[in-house]
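A favour, since you know our structure tokens better than I do. Just paste the record in under my message, thanks.
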Amino acid sequence: MKKVNVGLVQMSCTKDKQENLDKAIAKIREAAAKGAQIVCLQELFTSLYFCDVEDYDNFDLAEAIPGPSTDALQVVAKELGVVIIASLFEKRAEGLYHNTTAVLDADGSYLGKYRKMHIPDDPAFYEKFYFTPGDLGYKVFQTKFAKIGILICWDQWYPEASRITALMGADILFYPTAIGWATDQDEETNQDQYNAWQTIQRSHAVANGVPVVSVNRVGFEQDGAMKFWGGSFATNGQGKILYLGSHDQEETEVVELDLSESDFFRKHWPFLRDRRIDSYQPITKRYIDGD
């Protein structure tokens, strides 16, 4: 029986990049003290969610990966013996930027990065202004404790992304994310949106027979116009909720995942075995209408 303790860090952020990094490190230490072996931070945790506006000055928040933040986190990973999943704003070259997650192993080594593939362009989520779509493809990382797959926020809505990552051998799917409610919305709309967000991710766990861990930020941003809804959660490979975070509090939670359950779930609900891969060629079309 293979079990792993996963730490979820749900926190609010400020305008001060160093303050946010220091806070995240403190929470990683808290998670490790609770027994965490893999710690996942939320999307773009070193800053406020700046994509609410198209502002060239925000590009100054970006950094190289590996770079200053990964250097600091590598020291912490080695000291504590934990894997760290760190979502950062990557400056790849002059004028070329990505929304990227770095993975640091428990010995402090840098294992690599995943660049967000699906980039939104919604009101208050103007990510196409800042981020080039990922060009590394989908990725898994063999860490000390598990082979993990990383996807980022908007990737959450796409079963194709979770399927491919699971087929690459991921034991767990992690989703660092930043999503919230416009504060002028009614409560029914808020709940419908949150339920859709959680449901699609739980479906990835069921369809692939692997645990899903989703870590979201919390707190009011955008001058009070946006309430990031927290609600971080972890499921097993059957979509059962093992932990559910609050909508308005910072939380550092550690959840035990039994990775041996995936074999059981896939035997009894053999969705991977029964896939008709010979019939899936049309999935690569934008729309199936003859054009």
The chain has five helices and 15 strands. The helical segments are 17-33, 68-80, 159-167, 187-208, 261-268.
